[in-house]
Recover the amino acids of this structure.
């Protein structure tokens, strides 16, 4: 049974989120760090919330950028679902003060830790989905991600990848045609992009240029995922 303080915190967060929970235990679990070993924590809800956030934002990006190619859609999508975006939203909501954690985790800066804040935000999304369904969680996500959706990238995926790599040591991406298929009037190109020890990716396109953009977006997505998890 939730304590008076947990109920007071839940009410405050519900007001911030614009969602009143039918089952507040879901919200309390979403706010509970694994350092409280004997209590339900946010890890399972985080797993679910990650998928729900991806679905809602994939739909939002697809509808918002109707003329964009796959590479640009991927770039926009990743910006929307990255750990950095999740932590930003969590900070805007000041969620750190509500996280339930052991004293040692708090002493080590857990309430301000970007990775923990991102995990909690994903868990809250998962909790809202379980409590109110897709329509309810879509309202919450759109409310807090709308401004981020308006930040359309002002560069293409190849340029963004090059700038991202240069900011992390100056590695230049190298593009090569891995395969050319189909008739001369309608060829399909598979392009491979490599960034040294950082990794590589392949993608297809109806032209070499289109395949290069798609490959750049795929590699950027992979590298940013790795950076988020590190």
């Amino acid at each position: 049974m939730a304590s008076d303080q947990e109920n007071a915190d839940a009410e405050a967060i519900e007001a911030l989120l614009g969602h009143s929970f039918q089952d507040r235990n879901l919200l309390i679990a979403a706010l509970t760090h694994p350092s409280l070993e004997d209590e339900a924590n946010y890890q399972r809800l985080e797993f679910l919330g990650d998928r729900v956030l991806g679905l809602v934002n994939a739909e939002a990006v697809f509808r918002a950028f109707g003329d964009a190619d796959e590479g640009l859609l991927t770039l926009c999508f990743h910006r929307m679902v990255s750990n950095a975006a999740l932590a930003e939203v969590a900070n805007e909501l000041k969620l750190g003060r509500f996280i339930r954690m052991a004293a040692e985790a708090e002493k080590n800066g857990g309430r301000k830790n970007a990775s923990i804040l991102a995990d909690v935000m994903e868990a809250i999304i998962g909790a809202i989905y379980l409590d109110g369904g897709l329509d309810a969680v879509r309202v919450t996500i759109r409310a807090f991600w709308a401004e981020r959706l308006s930040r359309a990238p002002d560069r293409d995926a190849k340029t963004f990848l090059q700038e991202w790599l240069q900011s992390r040591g100056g590695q230049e991406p190298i593009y090569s045609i891995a395969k050319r298929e189909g008739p001369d009037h309608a060829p399909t190109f598979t392009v491979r992009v490599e960034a040294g020890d950082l990794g590589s990716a392949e993608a297809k396109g109806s032209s070499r240029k289109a395949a290069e953009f798609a490959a750049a977006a795929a590699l950027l997505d992979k590298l940013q995922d790795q950076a988020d998890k590190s």
Q: What stands out?
A: The beta strands are 174-181, 188-194, 200-205. The mean pLDDT is 88.
